[in-house]
């Protein structure tokens, strides 16, 4: 429901409801005002000559003196005929001289003559409201006529057509069946308009909703959002706002992918160049020695022929190793390696790897030792890949440790993990080379004197990534290097 309230349809529905409510209120207010004005206009128009007829039939003033009997007769007649009408006799300045209203209810002493003058004008437009003697702020429709000569009247007969009784009648009319029926008609028409607008908004926004859902599903399939985010309303805003954010995420993803493609293209070019160089060197050497053997085979002494064959064999082995490592790294990068994890005692595997490389270490004059825990600690890992990782790390350490140095492999058992550290007392790695240590075919300042392919560490890193582990390197030139990683302990 929370997600629904943030949808585009919900927002449009709220806006439509607010507009319909505002228009309905405005329409009702305008109807009330115009209806009252229309009633006043009709009433004043019908009673326009009332005051004139009263003045014509009764002699209300003589030489500025009020004729009380005639005036009271008019008052009595009006009370009998129409109690809602109130009659006031004004002097030429508008001062109230007499009235038909009960005593104590009249609060004004005079009435403004401006509305009376407008009413008496031939082209005056009705309704015209004048002062209500009963209310200091009130204004009501009236009928007026001059008393005596119209050019210089002795006073005015001021007849308020909507007195207190008239207001009561209007109040009663407000509760009439006709008015209630009209109000119900107005409300019904507004509700129909609201329902039609809601259906129209729902119909018009269906494509936006469908597109929003399709984009959300695409983001999940593309890996931009977790699957639990579809339909859960994790994003704030309506469909258009979510589409905008989705577009931004996809645009950002595309830009990252384009940048990654550019980087990979550069790496590919560099890889091709490095592979060409590393393949050309042993191939050229191998070809040269074989060609020499073919041309000078009869003239070469056995010892020289043997030396040529040994060099050609080493170059062939190096070429075979390079091709094998390239193929292995390509399989790791392409996801072609399927992990076969099983409980593995890292201490025993390290002991086997150290024993395997001990003869190579002795031939280099390097001391190789292992620091193993007292108790076995198991991890869940692929035995063949972990053996490859440890072999590459130990082989790399031996290649860069001069004679008289030491390479040590330690297994440290922690509460939740098992850590492996391969440390050496070799030449170390400069700060400039350290960030690129795991790049393919990277040799750094050490050059190619070690005879490696530059792929061993890259293979180790990729194999550990498949196990969800990270590899760390600390090094200082002239001091040595420590490469470490850890795997969670198996249950």
Biggest beta sheet summary: 5 strands, antiparallel
Q: Give the number of domains.
A: 4
CATH fold topology of the largest domain: Heat Shock Protein 90
Radius of gyration: 53 Å
Class based on secondary structure composition and strand pairing = alpha+beta
Order of helices and strands: HHHEEHEEHEEEHHHHHEHEEHEEHEE
Low-confidence stretches: 1-5, 227-234, 445-452
CATH architecture of the largest domain: 2-Layer Sandwich
CATH class descriptor name of the largest domain:
Alpha Beta
The share of residues in helices is 40-55%
Mean pLDDT: 78
CATH superfamily placement of the largest domain: Histidine kinase-like ATPase, C-terminal domain
How would you explain this protein's 3D organization?
- This protein is of the alpha+beta class.
- It folds into four domains: 2-42 and 175-204; 48-160, PAS domain (Beta-Lactamase), CATH 3.30.450; 229-336, Helix Hairpins (Orthogonal Bundle); 341-488, Heat Shock Protein 90.
- 54% of the residues lie in helices and 16% in strands.
- It is built from 13 helices and 14 strands.
- The protein has helices spanning 2-5, 8-46, 50-57, 68-81, 114-120, 164-174, 177-204, 206-221, 239-296, 302-333, 346-364, 383-399, 456-466, and strands at residues 61-62, 65-66, 86-90, 96-99, 129-131, 139-147, 155-160, 341-345, 367-371, 378-382, 406-413, 417-424, 471-476, 480-488.
- It has a five-stranded antiparallel β-sheet with strand order 4-3-7-6-5. A five-stranded mixed β-sheet has the order 9-11-12-14-13. A two-stranded antiparallel sheet has the order 1-2.
- Strand 6 and strand 7 (155-160) form a beta hairpin.
- The model is unreliable at 1-5, 227-234 and 445-452 (pLDDT under 50).
């Amino acid at each position: 429901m929370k997600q629904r309230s943030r949808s585009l349809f919900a927002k449009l529905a709220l806006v439509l409801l607010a507009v319909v409510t505002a228009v309905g209120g405005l329409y009702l207010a305008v109807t009330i005002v115009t209806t009252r004005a229309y009633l006043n206009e009709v009433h004043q128009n019908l009673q326009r000559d009332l005051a004139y007829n009263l003045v014509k039939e009764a002699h209300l003033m003589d030489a500025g003196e009020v004729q009380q009997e005639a005036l009271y007769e008019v008052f009595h007649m009006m009370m009998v005929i129409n109690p809602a009408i109130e009659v006031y006799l004004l002097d030429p300045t508008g001062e109230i001289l007499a009235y038909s209203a009960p005593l104590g209810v009249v609060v004004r002493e005079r009435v403004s003559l401006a509305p009376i003058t407008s009413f008496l004008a031939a082209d005056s437009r009705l309704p015209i409201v004048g002062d209500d003697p009963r209310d200091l702020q009130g204004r009501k429709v009236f009928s007026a006529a001059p008393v005596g000569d119209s050019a210089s009247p002795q006073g005015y007969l001021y007849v308020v057509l909507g007195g207190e009784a008239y207001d009561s009648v209007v109040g009663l009319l407000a509760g009439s069946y006709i008015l209630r029926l009209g109000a119900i008609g107005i409300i019904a028409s507004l509700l129909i308009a609201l329902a039609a607008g809601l259906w129209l908004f729902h119909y018009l926004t269906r494509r936006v909703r469908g597109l929003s859902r399709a984009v959300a599903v695409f983001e999940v399939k593309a890996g931009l959002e977790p699957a639990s985010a579809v339909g859960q309303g994790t994003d704030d805003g309506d469909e258009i706002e979510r589409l905008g954010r989705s577009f931004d995420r996809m645009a950002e993803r595309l830009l990252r992918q384009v940048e990654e493609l550019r980087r990979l293209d550069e790496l590919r070019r560099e890889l091709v160049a490095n592979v060409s160089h590393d393949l050309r060197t042993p191939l050229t050497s191998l070809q040269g020695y074989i060609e020499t053997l073919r041309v000078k085979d009869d003239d070469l002494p056995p010892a020289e022929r043997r030396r040529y064959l040994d060099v050609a064999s080493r170059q062939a082995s190096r070429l075979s190793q390079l091709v094998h490592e390239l193929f292995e790294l390509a399989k790791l990068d392409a996801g072609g390696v399927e992990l076969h994890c099983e409980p593995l005692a890292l201490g025993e595997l390290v002991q086997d790897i150290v024993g395997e490389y001990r003869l190579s270490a002795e031939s280099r004059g390097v001391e190789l030792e292992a620091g193993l825990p007292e108790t076995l600690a198991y991890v869940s890992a692929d035995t063949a890949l972990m053996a490859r990782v440890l072999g590459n790390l130990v082989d790399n350490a031996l290649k860069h440790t001069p004679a008289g140095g030491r390479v040590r492999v330690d297994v440290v058992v922690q509460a939740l993990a098992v850590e492996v550290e391969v440390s050496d007392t070799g030449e170390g790695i400069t700060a400039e080379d350290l960030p690129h240590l795991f790049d393919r075919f990277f040799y750094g300042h050490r050059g190619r004197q070690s005879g490696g392919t530059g792929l061993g560490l890259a293979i180790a890193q990729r194999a550990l990534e498949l196990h969800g582990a990270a590899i760390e390197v600390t090094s200082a030139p002239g001091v040595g290097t420590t490469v470490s990683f850890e795997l969670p302990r198996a249950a």
